[in-house]
Specification:
Layout (H helix, E strand, L loop, with lengths): L7 E6 L5 H13 L3 E6 L9 H8 L17 H7 L3 E7 L1 H8 L6 H7 L5 E5 L3 H5 L1 H12 L3 E2 L3 E4 L5 E5 L3 H11 L9 E6 L4 E2 L5 E2 L6 H12 L3 E6 L11 E4 L3 H9 L7 E4 L6 E3 L18 E3 L3 H8 L5 E8 L3 H11 L4 E6 L11 E2 L1 E4 L4 E3 L3 E2 H16 L7
Helix pairs in contact: 1-2, 3-5, 4-7, 8-9, 9-13
The structure holds ligand PMT.
The site of ligand PMT has 26 residues, from helix 9, helix 11 and strand 16.
């Protein structure tokens, strides 16, 4: 699963000034082709109108527990039966308190109590209300009851104070929705992923690097996290936002990356090396800027440590090791050679000659090679490619699925 397309989302809005942000989120969901049905509480209607949500969702809005229109009778039971996930944003302290004690005094709280689908709560309130012992206690109870709580952010609040209690950002909420809708088949696994290029300094202003954007590695990190893994992402310099819920370790040179990876490798269950590590570095970095002399310039380069090969030597029993290879030709032979020589379970061979595959594009075309199979995938988004890689990794843990 890669996005929220086709997902049926029951969206509850309660009475907070942050309700106006919920309107934007409904719009985002509809843009992503989710089907959205909205329930407004009475207090929510003080801040936003049903018409806003009806127009944005393309569906009539539910408000009244006792609506007698034929298709609305028993809405508190039926609405969640037709949904994949129920999200409440913003969720006020009052609604959290009601849900923590199992109250069902309006259409929204009744729908939550009747729901057999995941429920995601996005609290928003004043910071004193958020840190109050009663709210803390309610949140603990809600988590014990299995609700998914998206922690609010810190910042300036509508009341003029600054602190915790700001409605979370949409990216964070979207990631939570994707996680709760995805099978957690990597749950309990510690996964280390490398992403992006390395930079090998030449002088104070110049470096040797490559065209890796980090998109493939970041897609692997996001999707692994959605599948329940604890993810560490060792990232070279990229222009991407750190994905929520992931421990990101920024590095610059191949040597930094080697140190960051090898010092953590022992504790990892799965390691995926999608970074494009520079194979060579200048023999030394000049302390002063190299001047133009009117002549050419010869660079002396030395080999960098091959981190993946080193991981192959050190791997412990049960650890799964996945490498990447960026190849312009002889994909199969090169993939097989690297798989063998670096002691890998799986190698992902990138076709880097196509205009829509490999470096710095949104899509990828890869061949997955293990000792059991060689599988060429079609052109896919990098998130879809990542999901196929995780499917193959999960199959290593359930050997009956290998080769399928
Ligand atoms: O970042 P994007 O723009 O999304 O692009 C994705 C990608 C093309 C960078 C990525 O998918 C990819 O192919 N990464 C591997 C690129 C590469 O360095 O290939 P390679 O054949 O040179 O290296 C083989 C493997 O050895 C790789 O797993 C690499 O991480 C590893 N390696 C290489 C050299 C080195 N010194 N240490 C290493 O660990």
């Amino acid at each position: 699963m890669c996005g929220l397309q086709g997902k049926r989302i029951l969206f509850g809005v309660t009475g907070s000034i942050a309700a106006y942000k919920a309107a934007q989120w409904v719009r985002e969901l509809v843009k992503e082709e989710s089907q959205v049905e909205v329930i407004l509480t009475e207090a929510a209607e003080r801040f936003v109108t049903p018409l806003t949500f009806a127009a944005l969702s393309g569906n009539p809005v539910y408000r009244d527990m006792f609506d007698e229109a034929p298709d609305r009778v028993m809405a508190h039971i039926n609405l969640s039966r037709d949904a994949d996930v129920l999200v409440i944003a913003p969720a006020t302290a009052q609604t959290l308190a009601k849900l923590a004690s199992g109250m069902a005094d309006n259409l929204l709280t009744s729908a939550v109590l009747a729901a057999r689908i995941p429920v995601v709560l996005c609290p928003a309130m004043n910071c004193a209300m958020w840190t109050h012992a009663a709210t803390r206690h309610n949140l603990l109870r809600l988590q014990q009851l299995g609700y998914h709580v998206v922690q609010p952010g810190c910042g300036s609040l509508a009341c003029g104070e600054t602190g915790d209690g700001r409605l979370a950002e949409w990216d964070c909420v979207r990631e939570t929705l994707l996680s709760v809708l995805q099978t957690a088949d990597l749950s309990g696994r510690k996964i280390l992923i490398t992403a992006g290029p390395t930079r090998e300094p030449l002088d104070p202003v110049r470096f040797l690097s490559n065209r890796s954007s980090g998109k493939m590695g970041y897609a692997l990190a996001r999707t692994a996290r959605r599948r329940g893994a604890e993810v560490t992402l060792v990232s070279g310099p990229v222009a991407l936002e750190p994905p929520p819920g992931i421990n990101v370790i920024p590095v610059t040179t191949a040597e930094d990356m080697a140190e960051a990876v090898l010092s953590r490798s022992e504790q990892m269950d799965i390691i995926v090396k999608s970074a494009a590590v520079a194979d060579f570095k200048p023999i030394s970095c000049q302390s002063l800027k190299i001047k133009k002399t009117g002549q050419g310039l010869q660079l002396d380069l030395v080999k960098n440590v091959d981190i993946l090969a080193e991981l192959g030597k050190r791997r412990h029993p049960g650890q799964i090791l996945v490498g990447f290879a960026a190849e312009s030709h002889n994909h199969e032979q090169e993939g097989q050679r690297k798989l063998r020589e670096k002691h890998l379970d799986l190698i992902v061979v990138n076709d880097i000659l196509g205009s829509r595959t490999g470096f710095d594009v949104e899509t990828n075309q890869v061949t997955l090679i293990s000792q059991f199979f060689s599988r060429r995938l079609p052109l896919l988004s990098k998130e879809e490619t990542a999901q196929q890689i995780w499917d193959a990794v999960v199959a290593f843990e359930t050997p009956t699925q290998l080769g399928s």
